[in-house]
Amino acid sequence: MPCALVHYHELALKGGNRKFFIQRMVQHLRNSLRHHNGIQVDSLPGRVKVSFQDGTPWTAIEDGIRHTFGVVNYSLAYSLPIDYGNPDLQPLCKAIEAQLPTQSFHTFRVTTKRADKRFPHTSVEVNREVGAYLHEITGKPVQLHKPDLTIFIEIVDHTTYFSLNRQQGPGGLPTGMSGKVVCLLSGGIDSPVAAYRMMKRGCKVTFVHFHGRPYLSRASEEKVRDLAKHLTRYQLYSRLFLIPFGEIQRQIVLDSPAPIRVVLYRRMMMRIADHIAEKEQAWGLVTGDSLGQVASQTAENIQVVSEIPKLPILRPLIGMDKIEITNESQQIGTFDTSIEPDQDCCTLFVPPHPNTKCRSHDICKAEEGLAIQEMVEAGLKNAELVEFSC
Ligand code: ATP
Ligand code: MG
Questions:
Q1: Residue 188 CB–ligand 1 contact under 6 Å
Q2: Which residues contact 10 (CB under 8 A, 6 or more apart)?
Q3: Which residues bind ATP (predicted)?
């Protein structure tokens, strides 16, 4: 039966959390690969093994593994049973020879890890003997630093595994280790990256989007649905709340001075998101704010917005600039959707000269003239829930 070996990060595993961490990752791999027949995911000492049936395409298995947080690296692995009575490494050498890549490589190295100390050779002995054999049959030199090909050998409980093509995983902590948060997803470049970063730290993320209907088209909603669907690949199930915000904005425009409107919109969003988070049993709110990016994200305005929710606002991108965020959105695959043109509700009724230094006192005074409670209730009542599963 073919298999993959999956490695996780030891540092995250200190103390009593180790077992829990591994179990979460194993469960996530099982859920992620459940559509394929005959999948078996086992925790071995220091790594996880994913066994699958002959004929299941490696690309499908790989797709599930590389979307699992906690995975630091993984590879397609070949296995041989260990015969403790016979220390001959020839069968291993021959098996590796049969799998050597057909494409050219100029240099190689062998890297052995021996988790099973009953194995009669040390790691160094295995490296030397297998390396010498491969050198003899291929004529290629061993190069320890940056070789073209690394052959990984892992000796674990009764079995020797080897693999030729180790890939990087996403790292982070397995989904669900860090509870649930609610992310305000705008359809722009930043907030999907913020959501991804929290997922990577082990959070399950529920999404909330405020759209400008009936005054704007469905474009922002469609984008946000695509983004939520894309990110669901990492957590397998997501909930997205779509909140009509156009009417709320119109009322704010009618009853408040233009320069502070953006902050008033943001505070309304926070009130509604805070309620949703409570119902979702989330412990925090997430935004894609980056310090100083636009008027709503100056030091002063961030503070005034932060006064509103009961829950903490998490801003994983606060210290990043737009180039860094854009690069990350390209890496995680949300960029192309994020830059599709749309009409975000924030573009609706935007004042030409927003106040970049709003003061709490002035904002609270302006809010006295607004029917805050009714607006929150209307937002919650008209919320539409969309579910995604993967
Ligand atoms: P993004 O920050 O996602 O690229 P943006 O830059 O257009 O979009 P900003 O004006 O920077 O949005 O808004 C800051 C943050 O406020 C967003 O990252 C998002 O978390 C939240 N936000 C803004 N508009 C909305 C919206 N319409 N629905 C949900 N959240 C929003
Ligand atoms: Mg932004």
A1: yes
A2: none
A3: 184-185, 209-210, 266, 288, 297
Single out the residue of 266, 258, 273, 309 nearest to residue 289, CA to CA.
266
Whether the full predicted model's pTM is greater than 0.85, yes or no, is yes
Q: Is 271 helix (H, G, I), strand (E, B) or coil?
A: helix
Dist. CA 302 → ligand 1 center (Å): 13
Task: Estimate to the nearest angstrom the gap between the alpha carbon of 210 and the chain centroid.
Answer: 23
Report d(CA 108, CA 363) in Å as an integer. Answer: 65
| 372 in Cβ contact with 271 (< 8 Å) | yes
User: What CA–CA distance (Å, rounded) separates 282 from 69?
Assistant: 20
Give pLDDT tens digits along the chain (390 positions). 789 999 998 777 778 888 989 999 999 999 999 999 999 999 999 999 999 999 999 999 999 999 999 999 999 999 999 988 888 999 999 999 999 977 689 999 999 999 988 999 999 999 999 999 999 999 999 999 999 999 999 999 899 999 998 999 999 999 999 999 999 999 999 999 999 999 999 999 999 999 988 777 777 899 999 999 999 999 999 999 999 999 999 999 998 999 999 999 999 999 999 999 999 999 999 999 999 888 888 999 999 999 999 999 999 999 999 999 999 999 999 999 999 987 666 666 677 788 899 999 999 999 999 999 999 999 999 999 999 998
Main-chain phi, psi angles of 285, to 5 degrees: -110, 145
Q: With contact defined as beta carbons under 8 Å apart, do 334 and 230 qualify?
A: yes
Q: Which residues contact 169 (CB under 8 A, 6 or more apart)?
A: 6, 7, 65, 66, 68, 70, 71, 72, 73, 74
What amino acid is encoded at 291 in this protein? L
Give the torsion sign (CA, 365, 370, 373, 378).
negative
Tell which one of 181, 184, 186 to mutate to probe ligand 1, the residue whose CB is within 8 A of the most ligand atoms: 186
Tell whether residue 218 is among the known ligand binding residues: no
Task: Tell me what percent of the chain is helix, strand and coil, each rounded to the nearest 5.
Answer: 40, 20, 35
Beta 40-44 vs 149-156: how paired, if at all?
unpaired
